[in-house]
Amino acid sequence: MTAVLPAITNLSARVIRILGCNPGPMTLQGTNSYLIGTGKCRILLDTSDEGKTDYMDALSNLLKKLDVRLEAILLTHWHHDHVGCIGAIDKDKSLHSHNGCTFHKMPRKDADETKEKHYPVQIKPVIDGQKFYTEGATIRAVFTPGHTTDHTAFVLEEENALFSGDCVLGEGTTVLETLSDYMRSLYLMKGLKADILYPGHGPHNLDAGSVIGQYIAHREKREKQVLECLQQNGEMTIEEIVRSVYKGLPEHLILAASQNVHQHLEKLMEEGRVEEVGEKYRVKQNYKL
């Protein structure tokens, strides 16, 4: 974590960032929650962990100061640090518009879909390409799985800005569920040609294309290293690959690196470039780098 971010920041005429008051190794300075729009009723994108009263106080005070209420909450994905405060927001009716406040998220597509049934509020399903309107802002959903199966980015059309959630962060790299889906999502986001990046964690960036390009280059470089390692050494276990590719990596980081390498191997096997032999992996015969 390098940049120091204020608790509340006016990022543009229609976007205010509220930090989730939950800093940590995985959340960096804290989850970025965004108040979007210019009118008396606005949209909130993402929240914070459950029980974060400092975040709820900051959100409530900001809304009162602006004389603004919430008409909708958009959620990028199911992780607790993004959805944790939806119950508290639902209970505090003073935060809602006169027509109420609705909650929206893309459904999960796997076994963890049962988590959706345990939310303390009714979640309306988001559809890829769906648009949400509030005064001063048009927000379009873009399905971007990979970090999670339900991950959704949002485009603020008036600014040509991308709310990238945890698909692309303001600092460092992100964890994944499925690398093949994730790479497709990165290329999809790059193709949007957004000018501004509003990430799920870390500082915003006025050159979204450059940041997304760096993410793509990082993953492609690591993939090449894994392939070259197998090409040179033949059959290898995941740990052997890790110790070869991540030379000098501290022991306490081996597990995390192993999970990353496993993601790359899964993608390479899907593409028919690598095969599994017992507990080892090797480049498929006749495949050339």
Question: Helicity, in percent?
Answer: 25-40%
| Beta-strand residue fraction | 15-25%
Instruction: State the total count of DSSP E strands.
Output: 14
For the record, the count of structural domains works out to: 2
Largest sheet data: 7 strands, mixed
CATH architecture of the largest domain: 4-Layer Sandwich
- CATH homologous superfamily of the largest domain, by name? Ribonuclease Z/Hydroxyacylglutathione hydrolase-like
H and E string: EEEEHEHHEEEEEEHEHHHEE
Rg calc:
21 Å
Determine the N-to-C terminus distance: 36 Å
Average per-residue pLDDT, rounded, comes to 93
What spatial form do the alpha-carbon principal axes imply? elongated
Structural class: alpha/beta
Strand line-up across the major sheet: 1-2-3-4-5-6-7
Number of helices: 7
CATH topology of the largest domain: Metallo-beta-lactamase, Chain A
Spans where pLDDT lies below 50 across 5 or more residues: none
CATH class membership of the largest domain: Alpha Beta
Domain Metallo-beta-lactamase: 30-201
Protein name: Beta-lactamase-like protein 2 homolog
InterPro entries: LACTB2-like_MBL-fold, LACTB2_WH, Metallo-B-lactamas, RibonucZ/Hydroxyglut_hydro, Sec-metab_biosynth-thioest, WH-like_DNA-bd_sf
Pfam families: Lactamase_B, WHD_BLACT
